[in-house]
Every structure is written in C-alpha cells, then in structure tokens.
Amino acid sequence: MDEILQKRVLMIPAPFEGHLPSMMNLASFLSSKGFAITIVRTQYNFYDISADFPGINFFTIDDGLTESDMSSLGLLDFILELNSLCEPLLKEFLTHKDDVDFIIHDEFVYFPRQVAQDLNLPKMVFSASSAATSISRCMLMENQDKWLLHGEEARSKLEELVPKFHPFRYKDLPVTAYGSMERLMLLYRNVSKRDTSSGIIHNSSNCLENLFTSAAEDTWGVPVYLVGPLHMTDSATTCPSLFEEERNCNNLNCLRWLDKQGKNSVIYISMGSLAMTQKEEFVEMAMGLVQSNQPFLWVIRPGSITGQNSLDSLPEQFSQTVTHGDKAFVVSWAPQKEVLRHRAVGGFWNHCGWNSCLESISSGVPMICRPYSGDQRVNTRLMTHVWQTAFEVEGELDRKIVETSVRKLMVGDESKKMRKRATELKKLVEDSVSIGGSSYGALMSLVDSIMSS
Ligand code: UDP
Question: Contact 268/339 with Cβ under 8 angstroms?
C-alpha cells in the first residue's frame, strides 16, 4: 500500500461476466492506493468473490431477480427492471451509512445516479467498453431512422460513413440482437445521461483511442480517463467466473493440450459469455474448422447453440476429430487470458466483445471478428479498420468460408502482416500501462480527482 488516503469509495459493478472483472481490477488498484473500497453487488448473478479480494468490503442488495426473469424479460428489459428495483434499495442502504465519500458505478447500472444526487455525493461512471462505443450510442440515438428504412435504400445508407464519426459507417453503430429498437433507445438514453458525473472512466487506452478521446470529452463535458487495459495493471486480480459450471470445469487441461502444439499454430474460438449461435451456423463452423486442418481450441458454452442442448448431433467427422485426434480440443469455458498468452495460440475467432478485444491486443494475437450484438460492431470496425489486426467474416457462413477464413488468419502473407501489427499494438498497450504511459497517468489523475472531490 502506497499511503493511507482513506477516502471511502462505493463501487457498483454490473452483474455480468464482461463487466465485473474490469471494475474489480479498478477496485484493486484504488484499494492499493489506500482508498477504502466497498463493492455493492446485486443478488442477481451473485457468486461470493470476497475471498479473492481481501481488504475490500462487499455488500449485496436483494433485487429479487432470477435467471428466469432474465429469460422472460430479455436482456434489455431485464437491465431496465434491475435499475428500477435497485434504486430505492441503494437509497435505503446509503441512508443508514454515513461513511461514503465517492461513488463509481458501471454505466449499465445507472440507479446510483439519482441516489447520489439526492445525498449530494460526487460520482463517476465506469464504462467496461471503449470511448468510441460511448459516442456511438449517442450517434445511434441521433440516427435511428436509418434502421427503420427497408430494402435497397437501407442497405446503401448503412454502408455510408457517419458524419463527424469517421471511420464508422451507419452499420457499425451498436444496434442490438436482444430486443426492440425502442427499448434499446430507452436503455441508451439512461446509460448515456452523464451530466451529473464528475468524470467517465473507460477500460481503454489513449494509444488505442486517441481519435475519440477529445470527442468523448466534448460530448460529456467532463474529464474522460482511459485507464486500461485494467487486467494489465500490477494490482490486477483474476476474478472468478460468475457461472458455476465454468468455475467447476476442468479447463486447465486445455493449457496442457496447448503445450503440445506448435508455436502460433492453434486458432482459439470463443464467443464470450452471452452470444448465441444458430445450430446450422455452428455445424458449418465445426466442419470448416475440421477442413482447415488447423489445430483448434473451441469454447462451446452450455446452451449457447440455439435449439441444441448437447453436441451429440454434430457431424461424425467433427466428433471423431475432437474425440480421437490431437488436432482439436473443446471446452465449455477456457481460462481465456492464459490461453491467448500461450505461445501456441496464433489466432482468435471471436464475437468482438470489448474484453476479448483487449485480451487479444494485449497478447498480440490477430483476430477474425464475427460481431453478434451492440458494441461488438463498433469494436469490429476498430479492430479491422483502425488497428488492422483483424478481419471480419460477414453474412451467412458455410464450411468453405470458415476454412478459407481460418487459413487466411493463420498462414500466408496477410496473416504475417496482421501478426506484425498485433505485436506492435501489444507493445503500445504495454507501454501505456507502465510508469510514464498514458493509462498509468490517467489512473494517477483519477486518484487525484477522487481525492480532491
Ligand atoms: N471468457 C473466459 N473464458 C471463456 C470465454 C470468455 O474467461 O471461455 C471471458 C473473457 O476472457 C472475457 C469475458 O469472458 O474477459 C467476456 O467478455 P467480452 O467483453 O469479451 O464479451 P461478453 O461476454 O461481454 O459478450
């Protein structure tokens, strides 16, 4: 611990796999700087992680929501409901607690905003996404009519660049696979309302997003701190998965399997914690991977294939490859950061979730992007067009497209060029989190700002 500063910070993460770990890394950093941290968690998606974070206090509010509420409401309405239920519960908690100096909340759990205002507490918003994503939500709100067009007119408009937001095209803006445009706009309006916050913290780095940092500050009129990738900071701690089957699965075997593979030879395939795949597409993926003749490590989450509960009905050739060969390994959850850092992993097929993008960048691994929903389109454009360490596979998949794409990523001239750029980008983010780097500086400015609030 550097020095005892003793400002008391209440931090409220969103209860999702792609959000909790990055906020916990920020909490660990602030704790290492002497702040007294209390994490307020929801009962929904709860797993006790306190043993992994000694020195940090935890409190749970009983929102009463369950997995079946999530299934029946859908993700968008679920988040809206979670926020309305939690606001009075947080107010009640804080009314009896007079030892909070500052609040940091995830942008998707915006319920502390009104409570903090009522209690006159300063606060900041934490975004587990990029600054470009935050701006893109505002751009989508301004341009939603483009998605209400149909046919050829819509298609040509969606290919156009969004004015004052280059290099993004309308089709790169973050529409959702989880609900209606109307509900999405309602959620984005809530998420993007930041006028009473004294700053916005992004798990991103200026070396990745220098094109958008000042635009973000202009949009919200408050300082924007790009402090990431937070999993690379010295104080970062691995946060256990929120899913029981993923905590219990014997996924370390896949690291031993990787040990036996050649350098940069394996393609790792994972679609994050929420994305779903249609059964037809899944079968084409499976056969394309086999045909590519490239070793692969594939995360197939239970329940992630629409209309299929087990892998029993997969083509025989695929099952044979997985069960009897040493060319393939399938797991239900992988220790992704370790996998990407492994010398055998030379490519990553992914849905372009922001954490996965940061983890691939910090490991210097080029990617195939197959965005599914929301900010994954924005991230895809960043990866493919701005940083050029990836390419996108769009449209309907068949096994031939999969086979050719895998080979393009893993072998040949284009692969070498992408790998070289990925290695250069890795060095840039490593420098940004080191002493003297931009993310390190942003973390220090954040500490000063909380101290002087
Ligand atoms: N993840 C993992 N093992 C897996 C699949 C995913 O550890 O088998 C982690 C991954 O490292 C990342 C997070 O789950 O930190 C997924 O977050 P991301 O933003 O990439 O996607 P989301 O799940 O939010 O769509």
Answer: yes
**Cα 397 to Cα 380: distance, rounded to the nearest angstrom:** 17
Tokens of 82: 């979670």
**C-alpha span between 161 and 30 (Å, rounded):** 40
How many CB atoms sit inside 10 A of residue 238's CB? Answer: 13
Does residue 178's CB lie within 6 angstroms of at least one atom of ligand 1? no
371 CB within 6 A, ligand 1:
no
Q: pLDDT tens across 245-280, in order? A: 667 665 678 999 999 999 999 999 999 988 888 888
Task: Give the tens place of pLDDT for each residue, 405-424.
Answer: 999 999 989 999 999 999 99
Atom of ligand 1 nearest to the CA of 301: 8
17 touches ligand 1 (CB under 6 Å):
yes
pTM of the model as a whole: 0.94
57-61: strand order across its sheet: 57-61, 36-42, 8-12, 102-106, 123-127, 200-202, 224-226
Q: Which atom of ligand 1 is nearest to the CA of 357?
A: 20
Q: Report the separation in Å between the CA atom of 245 and the middle of ligand 1, taken as the mean of its atom positions.
A: 15
Beta bridge partners of 225: 201
